[in-house]
From TrEMBL:
CDD domains in alphabetical order: GGDEF
Protein name (Swiss-Prot/TrEMBL): diguanylate cyclase
UniProt superkingdom: Bacteria
Pfam families in the cross-refs: GGDEF
Enzyme Commission number(s): 2.7.7.65
Enzyme class, UniProt record, top EC level: transferase
Source lineage: Bacteria, Pseudomonadati, Pseudomonadota, Betaproteobacteria, Burkholderiales
Domain GGDEF stretches: 84-219
Region Disordered, residue ranges: 237-268
Organism name: Comamonas terrae
InterPro entries per the UniProt record, alphabetical: Diguanylate_Cyclase, GGDEF_dom, Nucleotide_cyclase, Rev_trsase/Diguanyl_cyclase
Keywords for this protein: Nucleotidyltransferase, Transferase
Biased composition (Acidic residues): 240-254
Amino acid sequence: MISPAPLQSVYLRDLRLATAHSLVARASAGGMQLPNDSPTQYLQALIDGLCALSLRDPLTGLANRRHFRSVVEREMDRVARSGESALMLMLDIDHFKQINDEHGHIAGDRVLQSVAQTLSQGIRPMDTLARYGGEEFAIVLPMCAAAFGQSVAERLRESIESTPIVISPGLSLQVTVSIGGAFALQWIRSTSALWTERADRQLYLAKSSGRNCIQIEEPPDSTVSAEEKSLLFGPLFEPSLDDNDNDNEIELDVNTDIASQVRKPSDD
Ligand SMILES: Nc1nc2c(ncn2[C@@H]2O[C@H](COP(=O)(O)OP(=O)(O)OP(=O)(O)O)[C@@H](O)[C@H]2O)c(=O)[nH]1
């Protein structure tokens, strides 16, 4: 959802009730009416509105970097538990400084809003798109199989390249993006910083190979064998007739090398 107008930044310690009210009302399209049935309901709605605002980039209405980080943490946890794939894409507008220099900062802002809108139209509701920094965007795509990574990124790249951005009646601009991507490491608890770094490294490669292109890291081979996966998620061995026999128990510490942590009956 793209916000209708940029919101100003407010220092929390300077925040007054009236400012909070107008910020929350203005942030919602059409100016939301805060409930006035009771002071409690009014204040709760105000707090909810401010929390939502604190997770959003004011210029584009996308998730901000703080929100993105928490989504990445959650997704990494899910991938480590389920072994499903998740892709992180980092996208950066090419030669954006030139747009600011030639057409002014307001035109630059308009480009950022348009790119945000085009990208948000090209992803699934379950994906999270964020403005990661100045002219850099990031997307987490849960349950994105390795085989689809390149085509998803290509669709986004192509949609940006083919969408003219109207700045004023006589001026329309066309921009391109470079895209880097990396898949989350399955079965391994990594860190959000490491995953982001890997995607960022690919973005750097895309920039240095000429821009307007995509670089996605080869999905690493899982360190867990098929046999170990089935030990984690389903009985591989015939269940014992002896109810007290707990040979099939698995002890797992996912904080370290998983392959060496899976205990099989024959290891004892
Ligand atoms: N209009 C506008 N410009 C911004 C904003 N945030 C960052 N920028 C500008 O984005 C530009 C980024 O420039 P560079 O880092 O040199 O990147 P670039 O020109 O896109 O070059 P490459 O990324 O190498 O293709 C700088 O000029 C920043 O001032 C913003 O919110 N609005």
